[in-house]
Design brief:
The longest helix is centred in the N-terminal third of the chain and has 6 residues. By secondary structure, this protein is mainly beta. The relative contact order is 0.23.
Length: about 130
């Protein structure tokens, strides 16, 4: 399997199939510094934040509740949790990526366990295969 190199930057998170796909603005936090900062000091977020690599998160010093989706290597959602400020999330053994958004957003977008997400960054996409590809 090819190793993916992630970089801090912007992208798009796509949830759902081609008929009812929902695209969400995505901020990618791949460096140690940006993963550590995460959503700290913000009053909200428009879209979502991808922390990679990540297997758990915390909400200490956060100003608002967040939804957290734990993803495996293939971007399949393992679990979704809503976390209030001041909490420590349990690590997920198979989790390689974490997506954070404002509380309630994951339900609106249709993100739930078993759903496979597609992530696009810097002209590259990972996750769902395009129709007709193996």
């Amino acid at each position: 399997m090819r190793t993916r190199t992630w970089r801090d930057g912007d992208g798009t998170l796509t949830v759902g199939g081609t008929a009812g796909a929902r695209e969400v603005p995505l901020r990618i936090a791949a460096s140690y510094r940006s993963r550590t900062r995460g959503l700290l000091g913000r009053d909200g977020i428009d879209g979502a934040l991808l922390l990679t690599p990540a297997g758990s998160v915390h909400t200490f010093r956060m100003r608002f509740a967040i939804d957290v989706a734990y993803l495996d290597r293939k971007f399949t959602v393992l679990a979704v949790r809503t976390m209030k400020p001041g909490r420590l999330g349990l690590p997920r053994l198979r989790s390689r990526h974490v997506v954070e958004a404002e509380a309630g957003a994951m339900e609106r977008w249709g993100v739930r366990p078993g759903v496979r997400l597609e992530l696009r960054a810097l002209g590259t996409s990972w996750g769902k295969s395009a129709p007709g590809t193996p």
